[in-house]
Amino acid sequence: MNEGNARNGRSQKVSCYTLAPFVPALTTLREFMKATLISYPGVEPYIQDIITATHEAAKNAVVHNPGSSKPIDVICEIRDRAVLVEVSDRGHGFKPTGKSPCPPDIDALSGRGFFIMHSLMDEVQIKSNRHGSCVRMLKRL
Predict the structure, then answer these.
(1) Residues spanned by the domain of 110
(2) Which has the closest alpha carbon to 85: 128, 42, 126, 115?
(3) pTM score
């Protein structure tokens, strides 16, 4: 991830959240993200984008690891000129394509997560192996 000047700023706040691997827990994640982001200058115009992208990454971790009891970790780091979010799971992993996702089929019932993340955030990096996956997303302020 090329975080450039956004990464050079000092960290103003780092918040961590451990999410139970169940769809209903996503509501609490959204509340955590809003509470973390709301009071920082320059973040407000991007709060919904950051929350939505984080929700999509966490939802993918829940939905694509059915029956898992392993938690999902979310780290939100607020810097002077950027917000960095990392969503990590301990699932079975997958093979990222390395390509930016295309717009999903309008009639598809699913498959929009990566497209949404890439559309809302400035940078998205996905690493995955047989021990789990990590989605890192950067939003410049």
Answers:
(1) 4-140
(2) 126
(3) 0.84
For residue 29, the domain's CATH number is 3.30.565.10
Read off the pLDDT band of 99 (50, 70, 90).
low
- Encoded amino acid at 121, one letter: M
Element (DSSP H or E) covering residue 134? strand 132-140
Q: pLDDT for 60-78, tens place per residue?
A: 999 887 667 899 999 999 9
Q: How far apart are CA 81 and CA 135, in angstroms?
A: 20
Rounded (to 5) percent helix, strand, coil in the chain: 35, 30, 40
List alpha helices for the chain, DSSP H.
4-8, 25-37, 47-63, 113-120
First to last CA, the chain: 16
Among 72, 74, 89, 67, residue whose Cα is nearest residue 33:
74
Total of domains in the chain: 1
Q: How many helices (H) and strands (E) does the chain have?
A: 4, 5
